[in-house]
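Quiz preparation item.
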């Protein structure tokens, strides 16, 4: 069929249509966002309930539909059936409240739609990304002239740095020859508290998860330095090739910060790549509330940062920083004949695993300017102080046992007051374990407040993490009461007969 002189594209909109629908959507979203604090954190529905409510079981429609109706209906459905990490009582995992300016920035980025793989395809966006990365680095005390790239999140930021370390320290051309060409097993060292990204990195990179040396953590969940040193010495003696040590700047479970100054000194002495997983905590290095050890991330060969955590970005935004920009290029660049790129310019395709790339940097760049460095320090400091306030409240409450407070994470468990005297007894511990698992599950579904869990030693704990500028002191003050009320009801239902007498 010949193409019509004036093409009809079913996806196209007139300027007027776009303006009208956009205004209407922003209007609707402003109301929905403002209403979040008054509703549940989550509706706590099952997958089947969600599919039924949104009508998700039907076939792809053959014919198109009115975009205004689609947008309006989808926005109300989304907000009726979502979990809101921007809810003041969302304190689970490490997912931030999204900065409103960043929500608008994502719209703007999609409208301009630069392909941030190459300067020629994204002139303004590439240079904005360069500045955003420099600002992040300088904000946390890392050299501003480092290499860096925006990625999807903390996992990819760490994995990107891992590949830079692997290429730099393999001792042979590992990118061309593969891992098997080298002599001895390549070894990476990390504490047992390290996030699961390291397993994915070892797996994807071909060194294999068995190459990871999991070093025990001490009583404060920090890497045991003596054990690390002994393991590196033993591995060298066995003919292995230690190449990388991972320090964690804010662990996922408890917010523990490894002894980064000591790790940096050890890596220098041993000629090892020193990486800091700062996905959660690195941004807090800018705050005087954070422990001094965190600031030694400035000595690392690479640092993973995660703006969709403590820079309060909507998902997705991660950032890999590598001290020597050439090491990033050496790990990722190729020059195929079908690209015509000016090598004098910054082409992000050379700095990471992605080819075509979206404009993740815009929201970060705008939010950093909206709040300014001082504004960010205030919000991060407030989050940490609220977490300390929660730890105080939990310690003072008869029905909770407090465990840890680091950065903005507090861990604790529900212990009915009458069982406190018998802590450690196997039947009591078994009940507490089951009770806290059930409390976590049902409190999450209740929508009243949302915490997640940690496991320390054998203990199953509740865990509240505050990377949420919407959370107020009143939300924190209400949390122990909410959990104690729910915990009491579950205890009454679940307590084994043998423990009833303790009541
Ligand atoms: C310390 C740490 N590293 C890495 C990650 C992974 O980050 P993401 O979920 O953004 O991929 C997390 C996530 O919580 C984390 O806490």
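Solution:
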């Amino acid at each position: 069929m010949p193409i019509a002189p004036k093409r009809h594209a079913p996806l196209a909109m007139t300027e007027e249509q776009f303006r009208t629908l956009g205004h209407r959507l922003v209007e609707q979203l402003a109301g929905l966002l403002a209403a979040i604090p008054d509703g549940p954190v989550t509706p706590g529905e099952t997958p089947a309930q969600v599919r039924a409510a949104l009508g998700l079981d039907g076939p792809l429609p053959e014919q198109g539909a009115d975009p205004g109706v689609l947008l309006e209906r989808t926005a109300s459905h989304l907000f009726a059936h979502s979990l809101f990490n921007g809810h003041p009582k969302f304190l689970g995992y490490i997912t931030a409240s999204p900065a409103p300016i960043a929500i608008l920035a994502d719209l703007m980025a999609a409208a301009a739609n630069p392909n941030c793989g190459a300067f020629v395809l994204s002139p303004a966006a590439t240079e904005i990304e360069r500045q955003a990365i420099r600002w992040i680095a300088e904000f946390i005390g890392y050299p501003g002239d480092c290499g860096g790239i925006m990625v999807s999140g903390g996992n990819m930021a760490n994995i990107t740095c891992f590949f830079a370390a692997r290429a730099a320290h393999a001792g042979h051309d590992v990118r061309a020859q593969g891992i098997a060409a080298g002599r001895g097993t390549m070894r990476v060292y990390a504490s047992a508290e390290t996030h699961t990204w390291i397993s994915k990195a070892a797996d994807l990179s071909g060194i294999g998860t068995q190459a990871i040396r999991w070093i025990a953590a001490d009583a404060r969940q920090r890497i045991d330095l003596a054990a690390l040193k002994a393991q590196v010495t033993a591995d060298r003696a066995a003919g292995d090739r230690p190449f990388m040590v991972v320090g964690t700047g804010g662990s996922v479970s408890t917010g523990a910060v490894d002894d980064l100054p000591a790790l940096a000194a050890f890596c220098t002495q041993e000629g090892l790549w020193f990486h800091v997983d700062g996905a959660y905590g690195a941004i807090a290095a800018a705050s005087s509330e954070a422990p001094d050890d965190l600031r030694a991330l400035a000595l690392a060969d690479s640092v993973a940062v995660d703006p969709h955590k403590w820079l309060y970005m909507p998902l997705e935004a991660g950032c890999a920083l590598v001290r020597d920009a050439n090491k990033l290029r050496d790990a990722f660049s190729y020059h195929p004949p079908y690209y015509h790129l000016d090598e004098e310019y910054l082409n992000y395709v050379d700095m990471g695993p992605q080819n075509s790339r979206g404009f993740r940097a815009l929201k970060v760049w705008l939010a950093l300017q909206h709040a300014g460095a001082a504004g960010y320090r205030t919000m991060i400091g407030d989050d940490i102080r609220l977490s300390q306030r929660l730890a105080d409240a939990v310690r003072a409450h008869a029905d909770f046992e407090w465990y840890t407070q680091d950065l903005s994470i507090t861990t604790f468990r529900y212990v009915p007051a009458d069982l406190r005297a018998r802590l450690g007894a196997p039947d009591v511990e078994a009940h507490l374990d089951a009770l806290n698992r059930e409390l976590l599950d049902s409190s999450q579904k209740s929508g009243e407040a949302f915490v997640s869990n940690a496991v320390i030693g054998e203990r199953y704990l509740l865990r509240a993490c505050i990377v949420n500028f919407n959370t107020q002191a009143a939300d924190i003050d209400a949390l122990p009461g909410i959990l104690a009320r729910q915990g009491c009801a579950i205890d009454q239902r679940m307590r084994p007969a043998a423990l009833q007498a303790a009541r």
